[in-house]
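User: quick one - fold this with coenzyme A bound?
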Amino acid sequence: MAPEASKFSTKRLTKNTLPDFERLFEKHPAPGAFSCWCTYHHRARPSVNEELLSGVRRAARNRQRRRELVENESSHGILVYSKGEPVGWCQYGPREELPRFDNYRSYRRPARESGSKRLWRITCFTVDRKHRQRGVASAALKAALQAIRDGGGGIVEAYPIIRWGAYREYLGTVSMFQKEGFKVVAPFGKSNIVMRRSVKCGSPGPPTTRVVGKANSGNSGNSSSSSIGMSMRRGDHPSRGDGRGSLLTARQVYSAVKGKRP
Ligand SMILES: CC(C)(COP(=O)(O)OP(=O)(O)OC[C@H]1O[C@@H](n2cnc3c(N)ncnc32)[C@H](O)[C@@H]1OP(=O)(O)O)[C@@H](O)C(=O)NCCC(=O)NCCS
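Assistant: Sure. C-alpha cells for the protein plus coenzyme A:
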C-alpha cells in the first residue's frame, strides 16, 4: 500500500456520518458516476420503470433511498478521511442486506458453495478522483474487515475486477483482497472473480474510528487463508491507470480456483 495510507482515518456510516457520505457523493453529481448512491446492490432486482427515469431523477431517488437505509440501520459502510475530508467509501453488509448478487446468473456456482456460515459481502468502493492510487480503497477494506469482525464475523465475499474498462472498478482490485488474505473461489462473468476469506468474531479494535497506518498494513489477521498463489505486482498491470487491459488471464483465474478454498 502507498505510504500515504498512514494519513487516512476511517469512520463507519451512521446517521452522524451520513452528511460526510453525502459530501463525498456530491463531488460527482448526477448524471455522473456516483448517481447510484450505492443503493444498487440493496435491491434484489431493478425497480419498476428504473430505465425510464432521467439520470438526475434517478440520483434524487437513490439519495433518498440511501437516507432511508441509514435511518433504518440497514446499511453498512466505511468512510475514509484525509485531513478531515471524506475521500473514500466502501460498502459492506450481510448477504440479506445486499441481495442483488443472488440473482446474477454468473453467481449460481459460488452460491452453491457458500456453506452455512454467515455470509458478508463487500460490494462497492468509491474514491475521490484526486485521491486515487494512494491506498484509500485499501484502507477502507481494512476497516470494513474490522467492522465485520466486530459484527460477529463469518465468510466475507468480494467480486474484484480482473480487467479494467468494464465499468466495474467499483468492486475493487484483486491485489487489494489478496493482501487481506482473500482467495479466488470462482470466475464471475468476464470481468470479475469471486474471492472469499473467513473472519473470526471479536478481535479488539475501537468501534467507530481508527487511523490506518503502516503498522496495520499487510494481512490484518484472523484469516483462515493465505494468498492464492498468483502474484499481481505493480508491473503486472499492462496498462496501469489508463482504464484498459487484463489484470489476470482466464487461465490464472481457473488454476487458482482449482487450488485451496477457504
Ligand atoms: C478502483 C478504485 C476503488 C481504487 O481505489 P484506490 O484508492 O485508488 O485504490 P488503492 O490505492 O487502495 O489501490 C488498490 C490496488 O489497486 C491498484 N490500482 C488502483 N487504481 C489503479 C489503476 N487505475 N490502474 C492500475 N492499478 C490500480 C493499486 O495499485 C493497488 O494495487 P497494489 O496494492 O498491488 O499496488 C478507484 O479507482 C475508484 O473509486 N474507481 C471508481 C469506482 C466508481 O466508479 N465508484 C462509484 C460506483 S457508484
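One thing worth noting: Residues 1, 33-34, 36, 124-127, 132-138, 169-170, 172-173, 175-176, 234, 237, 240-241 surround coenzyme A (CB under 6 Å).
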